[in-house]
Structures are given as structure tokens and as C-alpha cells.
Design goal:
InterPro entries: Cof (IPR000150), HAD-like_sf (IPR036412), HAD-SF_hydro_IIB (IPR006379), HAD_sf (IPR023214)
GO molecular function: hydrolase activity
Strand content: 15-25%
Structural class: alpha/beta
Protein name: Cof-type HAD-IIB family hydrolase
Strand order of the largest sheet: 8-7-6-9-11-10
Number of helices: 9
EC number: 3.1.3.-
Shape: globular
Largest sheet: 6 strands, mixed
Order of helices and strands: EHEHEEEHEEHEEHEEHEHEHEH
Number of strands: 14
Distance between the termini: 19 Å
Keywords: Hydrolase
Helix content: 25-40%
């Protein structure tokens, strides 16, 4: 863990899955109350997620978020009314490289998010039902991704083989260096987004929009795409179930998402500052 600064916090940016949300993708009463307490204290709050913006609406409404939020790991920063504060597509070359790399592995499901749609070629992938439940809408089955190559927001390799995803992550990072961000948002998901789709840059963009110094921001997360926020935030907090390498990059570690760790962090490390 790093050492945290002593500044009060004016803005909090939190990851969703594995952080605010319980394993069943619900928000606990304690978490809802903690976020309401932030609002009451005049502390800004928003979400940054690997999810598409379309799949964040319900949680944003439940949490009463009135600020722009960051979907696709920061590739799309969207106002509550749907206007974009920023949007970045994955370069075609990086999309093609990812699709070619994932194709030979039958245990890897390839999903493409483009044109406000979730696109798949195999409607029977074993991880599809869980993702459909999490996102709140069904995928569109296509014969080819070719016509969408120029408007891709994210490519996902989904697999229960976490070791394979780690290998694919390392290989694709080499192939797309400088072209795309490649990181595992969860052990079963390898995300490919635009190089500008970085949660740290999203935090900086939102802080500038709100007029808040980065030293007075806090970030909460648990996945491999969250340390980018940790590096920019004045205070960074990792969830208790995060991988050790993620925890080491945070200022503080809270409880797991089963233990309402995000609410604990808000109550003890942010509101009490």
C-alpha cells in the first residue's frame, strides 16, 4: 500500500462490479446509504466501469448520480441525459488484432460492443447468461463483426480459463502497444478499449470538469483496470478481494464486496476526513 495524503475529499469515482455491487450485481442498503451520505455532505460521486453506459443506467439512478459517468473503462464519458463529454473508439487495427488472437481458442467467447449494441457470433456461449443478467439486455447475434470495425467501443475475451486470459493479455499488449488498452477487468474478462479509455484519464477529465484538484479525489476499485485511477487519485482504496498486485498499488484496503467494503471505505476513510 502507498501512503495516503491528508486532504479532504471533494469527489469520489468508484468502480462498479466487484466494488459497489455485490456478487449478485445488487446494491446493498448500506452502500446506498453511504452514497447518499456523500451527496448530503456535498461530495461528488460517480462511476467508472468496463460496462457500456447503457448497462450503468439503473445503478446510476438507484445511487442518485447526477454527474457524468465513465463507461468502457473511460472510453465513453456520458452526462445523465446521454450527451457525451468524451468518446473514444478502438482503432480498427487493434480490433482486428484482438479478433484474430482470440479466434483459435474455443474456450474464449468474443464479444464486441459497438454502435450501442452488444454483438456476439455464438449465442450459446456459457458466460452469456451471466453477462446478460449483469448488463440487463440481450446480445445481438451477427455472422461477422466486419461492418462494425470502425465504431467499436470495446472487445471482450470472456473465459473461465483465467490463466489463458493472462497469457492472451500479455500477447495482445505487445501487439497493440500504443494503440489500445488491454486489461482484465475481472478474472474472466479481458477488455480491449481505446488507448484513451483509461480510468485514470477519466478521473482527471471528470475532476477538471468539476473543478476539483486531483489531490482532493478518491478512487475505489478491485480489478486490473482500476490502478490507473489509483495513480491519479489523492486517495485510492482497493477492495478486500482484489488481487494482491492491485492492493499493493492502493493507499488503503477495505473489506470485500460481500462485506460492504465500499460502504466501509466511504464511512471510515472519506466521510470522516
Amino acid at each position: 500500500m502507498r501512503g495516503s495524503n491528508a486532504y479532504p475529499i471533494d469527489f469520489v469515482l468508484s468502480d462498479m462490479d466487484g466494488t459497489l455491487l455485490r456478487p449478485d450485481h445488487s446494491l446493498s442498503p448500506r452502500t446506498l446509504a453511504a452514497v447518499r451520505a456523500l451527496h448530503d455532505a456535498g461530495i461528488g460521486f460517480s462511476l467508472a466501469s468496463g460496462r457500456p453506459p447503457r448497462a450503468m443506467r439503473q445503478q446510476l439512478e438507484e445511487l442518485g448520480v447526477e454527474l457524468p459517468s465513465a463507461g468502457f473503462n473511460g472510453g465513453s464519458i456520458v452526462h445523465p441525459d446521454g450527451r457525451y463529454l468524451a468518446r473514444h473508439h478502438v482503432p480498427v487495427a487493434a480490433v482486428v488484432a484482438a479478433l484474430l488472437l482470440f479466434a483459435p481458442y474455443p474456450q474464449v467467447e468474443t464479444w464486441v460492443f459497438a454502435d450501442n449494441q452488444w454483438l456476439v457470433r455464438d449465442p450459446d456461449g456459457p458466460l452469456l447468461p451471466l453477462e446478460r443478467q449483469a448488463l440487463g439486455y440481450a446480445p445481438q447475434v451477427v455472422d461477422s463483426f466486419e461492418e462494425y470495425l470502425h465504431c467499436v467501443d470495446k472487445v471482450v475475451a470472456a473465459s473461465s480459463d483465467a490463466r489463458l486470459l493472462m497469457e492472451l493479455e500479455a500477447r495482445l499488449q505487445q501487439q497493440t502497444a500504443g494503440q489500445a488498452q488491454v486489461s482484465r477487468s475481472q478474472p474472466r474478462f479481458l477488455d480491449v478499449t481505446a488507448v484513451q479509455a483509461d480510468k485514470g484519464q477519466a478521473l482527471a477529465t471528470l475532476a477538471e470538469y468539476l473543478g476539483v484538484p486531483l489531490a482532493r479525489t478518491a478512487a475505489l476499485g478491485d480489478g486490473g483496470n482500476d490502478p490507473a485511477m489509483f495513480q491519479r487519485a489523492g486517495l485510492s482504496i482497493a477492495m478486500g478481494q482484489a488481487e494482491e498486485q492491485v492492493k499493493r498499488l492502493a493507499d488503503l484496503v477495505t473489506g470485500t464486496n460481500l462485506e460492504d467494503g465500499a460502504a466501509q471505505a466511504i464511512e471510515c476513510y472519506i466521510l470522516l476526513r
